[in-house]
From TrEMBL:
The lineage of its organism: Bacteria, Pseudomonadati, Pseudomonadota, Gammaproteobacteria, Lysobacterales. SUPFAM superfamilies: GroES-like, NAD(P)-binding Rossmann-fold domains. This is NADP-dependent oxidoreductase. Transmembrane segments: none annotated. Keywords: Oxidoreductase.
């Protein structure tokens, strides 16, 4: 039973030394428990937050504890009345081969044809896009919606839902390949490369009527370019700030908070953060119904970036924080 634990808290970007691969015996389930074999492990930006002991909405992972993570697993032994050997389940086993579970936080996946989608478009990232865009962004037909990390798990879904709702969608992505995919495969109206030296100017040209909804995934230079384009009454769901997750201190330079708040005030902008964990009880079932129909009809798709082997999870995760993934990053742990 291999497991990857947090060896040390990163200073800035995580390094290989912050992770350690260990071998343990495969655990044995007691009465009322199941033994799970991890098939797929989801890698997500929030894991950077768990590696740190800075204040957050969730407690940090302790040093020497297994890295947390959503998983699709097969039940390989069951002493639980609700689960049988062979069942596929969505759970949170983290970065390891096997886990014993009391079943409380497991969701049965039935005979899902494509089980890893439970970690992407039909799971946490898809739900994040759906909730943040529809309940906070509230896009109207003809409005302009901007989203960065547009080929990634959340951004790709945000843009496709906004298109379904009749909005004009401008994506931001890192590199020409990702931008081409966002335009040609996901059907966005425009996509701007964030590495382009003329990024801010090109974004302004693509948003001739300003921006009505900015779905905030990244912060940093993208936010700087977006701010002057926001329209009166714009909505800004604050979902993530990945450009800052490795920051160790605030950026130098003049304090621009008054500029931001002045803009929010004058333009009556609604800026609202959310943590998707808060919304499962009420929101997940209706999301799942509607998204399943969109996926079945081919209206929403999401490319998966599948990395083989649990031992490659640390490198893949470090790459996620630099934009090296192309689509939803998932580790294939076993068949
Ligand atoms: P992605 O699959 O989109 O992967 C992350 C992407 O972020 C990279 O591929 C890269 O895209 C982009 N990126 C990385 N570094 C930078 C940078 N310095 N500046 C700009 N972009 C960068 O990840 P997710 O879809 O899983 O997550 C997207 C955002 O949503 C994250 O901020 C995450 O924390 C947040 N989130 C928030 C949740 C909540 O409950 N609030 C729940 C789930 C996710 P590219 O190279 O194309 O620019």
């Amino acid at each position: 039973n291999r497991r990857i634990v947090l060896a040390s808290r990163p200073k800035g970007a995580p390094t290989p030394q912050d992770f350690r691969l260990e071998q343990r015996d495969v655990p044995t389930p007691a009465e009322g428990e199941v033994l799970l074999r991890t098939l797929y492990l989801s890698l997500d930006p929030y894991m950077r937050g768990r590696m740190s002991d800075a204040p957050s909405y969730a407690p940090p992972t302790a040093i020497d504890d297994v890295m947390v993570g959503g998983t699709v697993s097969r039940v390989v032994a069951s002493r639980h009345p609700k689960f049988a050997e062979g069942d596929l389940v969505l759970g949170g086993s983290g970065w390891q081969d096997y886990e014993v579970s009391n079943g409380r936080d497991l969701m049965a996946l039935g005979n899902a044809a494509h089980p890893s989608l439970a970690l992407s478009v039909l799971g946490m990232p898809g739900f994040t896009a759906y909730h943040g865009l529809l309940n906070i962004g509230e896009p109207k037909p003809g409005e302009t919606v901007v989203v960065a990390a547009a080929s990634g798990a959340v951004g790709a879904v945000v843009g496709q839902i906004a298109r379904i709702k009749g909005a004009r969608v401008v994506g931001v992505a890192g590199g020409a390949d990702k931008c081409r995919y966002v335009l040609d495969e996901l059907g966005f109206d425009a996509c701007i490369d964030r590495n382009d030296p003329q990024f801010a100017q090109k974004l302004a040209e693509a948003c001739k009527d300003g921006i009505d909804v900015y779905f905030e995934n990244v912060g940093g230079a993208v936010l700087d370019a977006v701010l002057p384009l926001l329209n009166e009454g714009a909505r800004v769901p604050v979902c993530g700030l990945i450009a800052h997750y490795n920051d160790q201190k605030l950026p130098a330079g003049p304090d621009r908070l008054p500029l931001l708040l002045g803009l929010v005030l004058r333009k009556r902008i609604r800026l609202q953060g959310f943590i998707i964990l808060d919304h499962y009880a009420d929101g997940f079932a209706p999301f799942y119904r509607e998204m399943s129909a969109w996926v079945a009809a081919g209206k929403v798709k999401l490319r998966e970036d599948i990395v083989d082997g649990l031992e490659n999870a640390p490198a893949a995760f470090m790459g996620l924080l630099e934009g090296k993934n192309f689509g939803k990053l998932v580790v294939h742990v076993a068949d």
